Amino acid sequence: MFRRLASATFGSIMSTNLISSGTTAREKVNLRTPEVMTAVQEQVESHYRSDIVDKVRRAGGILRCGDITVRLAKQFGFCYGVERAIDLAYAARKVFKDRRLFIVGEIIHNPEVNEQISSLGIKNLMGKNKQADISELGPDDVVIVPAFGTELSIQQQIKDRGCQIVDTTCGDVMSVWKRVRKYASESATSIIHGKAEHEETKATSSRALGTGTGHYLVVLTLTDTDYVCDYIRHGGDKQAFLERFRDAHSPGFDPDLHLRTVGVANQTTMLRGETEEVQRRIRQAIVDRDGPEGATKNFRFFDTICGATQERQDALRELLDVRMNLLLVVGGYNSSNTSHLAEMGEEKLPTYFVRNASRLLSDEEILHYNLHERQEVIAKDWLPKGPIVVGITAGASCPNNLIEETLVRLYELRGISREELEAAA
Ligand code: SF4
């Protein structure tokens, strides 16, 4: 993976703006000198690469050792947007050696990667692990915007402090912003399929306001969607509507006014099938209310699921066609795209969503994240005796070294050492 990353990294850095921003003109700083990039590459590889995973991948994604066969999904782990964000953060640390570095929240949704970023001395400005406040920043400080992007109001506060911004927002996220801005310019309310509290959706929602007159509504589930569709068709109790979507609509949102013309967009990491269903149901509700011609005017949509999310979902779908005893999904529990992979697995076979190898407690117990209870729970007798096939996948924010450790732990529970595994890979 990282060999491929080497060229991708240079490409992405070259096309990245290191934004000179703030109230005073800032010098442009080049993050992409060959020396910096070579050093970044070495450091990133030393933190996140896995020889075993690379070998298994080259061998078609199948590893047989003892009586466990592991099958890796064809696509898993770090996506191009995450690779780029991490590279830029490491590059910023090298280039701005003597400056204070901050980041607007988590760089990606993986605790281990965030700990690494923190160990570089990059302080978090947001969330439960906040280490500093924007009000403390000054013109000598450098602020990294993560791959999800950030809300316009936060971006403005940073600019107002005169800070240098290293913007790692993924291009696929920016495509969604472009779309919702267009909706706002056409006086269409953006209905965003996503998680209202997710950083990416918050950033997108802020763009859906357009020049200030636009509106948005965030729907997460098909039940939410049906509620909105019912209101579109028949109207209803406005207060109850606003209460249900509290914290998920724009200021001043009025369902009687702002569901007349709508455009659907989505968080880039949602399940494609579900997003398509959201679009289909909302469109049908508008057709029922306005007729097919009216719907042409009052409904629009644009599929903004990103390519990397799609590839990981497609690869897992293919893997799930193979007969397997269980599936391990590795990644951060607040990662949207990883959660969707776990949901897909659950529909087919016993699936365990684990943050890292330490969750494989023994061959009898596994500590895994239950998506429905939203907490880690212990499952017993999770590893069947005798010859088994275990599927493994990981979300776009999970580095290969964590996948390797999970794999090694799995075999260790059957008495197979890392050395034996390396020889078999
Ligand atoms: S998951 Fe998609 S949108 Fe998010 S960083 Fe990766 S490529 Fe970009």
Describe the fold and architecture:
The protein has 3 domains: 136 residues, Rossmann fold; 134 residues, Cobalt-precorrin-4 Transmethylase, domain 1 (3-Layer(aba) Sandwich), CATH 3.40.1010.20; 117 residues, Cobalt-precorrin-4 Transmethylase, domain 1 (3-Layer(aba) Sandwich). It is of the alpha/beta class. The chain has 16 helices and 16 strands. The structure holds iron/sulfur cluster. Iron/sulfur cluster (SF4) binds next to helix 4, helix 7 and helix 13.
Task: Give a quick rundown of the structure.
This protein is of the alpha/beta class and 425 residues long. Helix content is 45%, strand content 16%.
What's the CATH topology name of the largest domain?
Rossmann fold
Distance between the termini: 16 Å
**Per CATH, which architecture of the largest domain?**
3-Layer(aba) Sandwich
Strand content: 15-25%
For the biggest sheet, the summary is: 5 strands, mixed
**Gyration radius from CA atoms, angstroms:** 23 Å
Q: Give the number of DSSP strands.
A: 16
Can you give the mean pLDDT?
92
Unreliable stretches covering 5 or more consecutive residues: 1-25
Domain count: 3
**Structure class:** alpha/beta
Ligand roster: iron/sulfur cluster
Number of helices: 16
Question: According to CATH, what is the class of the largest domain?
Answer: Alpha Beta
Order the strands across the largest sheet as they lie in space. 1-7-6-4-5
